Amino acid sequence: MSNRDIIVIGGSSGATAPLKAILGALPDTLAAAIFVVLHIPARSLGLLATVSAAAARLPVHPAEDGLAIAPGHIYLGVPDHHLILEDGRIRLGRGPRENMARPSIDPLFRSAAATYGPRVIGVILSGLLNDGAAGLDAVRRCGGVALVQDPADAIADEMPRSALAAVADGLTVPADRIGDVLADLVQEQAGPRLPVPPEIRLEVDIAAGERIDSGVLRRFADPVALSCPHCGGVLSEVRGARPLRFRCQVGHAYTAEAAAKAQEGAVDEAMRVALRIVGERAELVARMAVEARETGRNAVAEMYEARAAEYRDYTETLRRAVLDTFEPRGGGGEPEA
């Protein structure tokens, strides 16, 4: 029976410092391969140097399609590709973005769970929103171990808290202890292999770039009256998902929180456009009322005046709503990777 020899790590805002601490604490004899996805800009070049400096005792590689996996090596997700694990090698996927990101954490975790089952240790670090929570749930469903950075010492605690909500039995560990805990877990034998839920394999295929259509989507999701923030297509709710998640027929995937964040810009813009149009309508009708008064059409003038007052009420309601959008809000997302 194999040991726990596959470690997958995901994070975003505030994750670089704990990642450096983790990798710096690992021994050069570590008998496990490590895979890392952080939400990074599409043209980011600094992560490789940062991780290489922190993990001085272990070789670090940017992920390459077809690259063989070796224990004691660290593999980093690269911009604009999902990092996917197959048996003994890496695959880079150009499937649709998940939670506005590519690479996204969930595809890495799902592919590890589907391929290596109980040999996987999943680690969620500091970050905004909740990418990685569904992937960590997949790791546990396939028999793996779930570790989560203690939200109390995370710069951004949303991602760790969401992961713990999705995986109630996950281990909560302060960032400066995760490296030691991993070194111990790697020495343990993995548990028995569990059946892989078919929806996990389907979502791995989607991330890899396999074709998706309504027939594929209906195998694990049901259409709802929501549109995809990215392409405008119909969203379907993934059955039994933890956390609540959606996919469109193109394959774009969102947790409910990520979808709400993605919609914010469109909602704000729509309200500003409506404010301008209704305000202009009020001004036009008011001028028409003045003209009607000047030409002795009092009944028409009264009708226009009533309409202008009604439009001004609408304008004030919209103005208050637009101003509310500038109030400070909890949380926040990151730029689309």
Automatic annotation (TrEMBL):
GO terms for biological process: chemotaxis. Keywords: Chemotaxis, Hydrolase. Gene3D superfamilies: Methylesterase CheB, C-terminal domain. The active site is at 12, 39, 131. Its EC number is 3.1.1.61. GO terms for cellular component: cytoplasm. Pfam families: CheB_methylest. It catalyses: [protein]-L-glutamate 5-O-methyl ester + H2O = L-glutamyl-[protein] + methanol + H(+). GO terms for molecular function: phosphorelay response regulator activity; protein-glutamate methylesterase activity. Residues 1-189 form the CheB-type methylesterase domain. This is protein-glutamate methylesterase. It comes from Methylobacterium radiodurans.
